[in-house]
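Long-time lurker. I teach an intro course on protein structure, and each term I like to show students one example going from raw sequence to a predicted 3D structure in token notation. This year I'd like something fresh instead of my usual example. Would anyone be willing to generate the tokens for the chain below so I can use it in lecture? Attribution to the forum is fine with me.
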Amino acid sequence: MRRLLSMKTMLFVGLMLLSSVCHQSTARSEKVITRKENVEPSNRWAILIGVDDYSIARDLRYCGADQIALREHLIASGFPEDQVVLMTTNVRENQPNKLNIEKQLARVLGQVKENDMVVFAFSGHGVQIGETSYLCPSDAKLNDDTSMLSLNKIYAQINRARASLRLVIVDACRDLPECCTPRTVEEIKDANRSLSRSLSQEIPEGIIQFTSCSAGEQAQEHPDLGHGVFMYYFLKGLQGDADVNNDNQVSLTELYLYSGKHTEDFVKEAFSDSQHPRLKGDLNTEVMSFQLAGKN
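-- Reply from a regular --
Happy to contribute to a lecture. Here you go:
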């Protein structure tokens, strides 16, 4: 990671935000993020999944709020509304069950063209079974891996798309997905933390991966934030708070350093635990630049 963050070539991510969603106001003036390169909004696609309510697993609280907030930010930045697919248990029309997620993923990626941007974001439960990492849709059964979504298969699908930027945000190690299955609590706990270890391993070439925690850790959420801790600071960083050098740009490195430090500090204080977000990927390829500009 240190090697990647020291690379001279930096991948800049900017998402133009016209409003702050579910965040406390800060002393600095609001900024929006606009892209320096001439890329039309029609070239931007997003698949956002937030699962709070599970049929046979412990429910979560703020996964839907995380992705709803991210959707609003993306649309404000110029992502066409019909190209930002939101699937949460908070939205009745587009539930995040396995069949629907697979259907929407295939539909969106089938329309992606060369030089497009694709953002895939998931907030919810995730587990590691054997050598395979899985994301848990709302109808997941933890004793049946066919009811879950293989992260390797998702990576393969995204990589086949001809996009110039493929950003995957995974916040899937929250709480224990305890349920009434033959698995014991300890087995489930181990599977949950094994996922964070798996996410720390190598990822396919062409994917930029931002994860909410490091190997063996658990991602936290907190009622005072109304979000998962990582996503709360991720969103604040995208608003411009991560622009520590005031150059009107937010790079993935800056975003990583900002969300990482604040997530680490908050979790240490509130939970007496550790949580370190991670950024991985080949930042030498598919470089994009984004510019911060004052709000009109």
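Some talking points for your students: The first helix runs from residue 2 to 5. The chain has seven helices and 13 strands.
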